[in-house]
Amino acid sequence: MALAQKTEGRSYxxxxxxxxxxxxxxxxxxxxxxxxxxxxxxxxxxxxxWKKLAVVGLQxxxxxxxxxxxxxVWGFPQTTLPQLKIxxxxxxATSEMIALNxxxxxxxxxxxxxxxxxxxxxxxxxxxxxQSRVVPSAKLVQALADFERKAVPYREPLEIKP
Length: 162
Hints:
Number of domains: 2
Number of helices: 1
Helix content: under 10%
Oligomer: single chain
């Protein structure tokens, strides 16, 4: 599983048009897949997009993390430089969801959650005022497999139907 670490960038959806920004350049996805049960959107980007990014290979952890396990979270909270937060603890872990004991700023959404040995536990989905929700890595692996079978060419305007 590969993770693209943005050195500077953001994605945005405006009027049904999606662009992924890296530095001053905007890229349009080639294929798109939305896994509604997991609330994960996956996009295939053009080859020149990857020239601007450092890609890091991550190994998904096969087992769920233990309750009270300390984790590391990568994200971009209010900055274009990646931030590492060490210290959140797992309070619940099921095959459907992992819960962390504290909320994370919005810039961590979509970021990887790692154990202290740098194995991928999952991806930050959302935070409430008291905890954060993480999609387990097994669900990410399944969503990537579904992407290969179900992704459609990206067309504008993008209409996401319920």
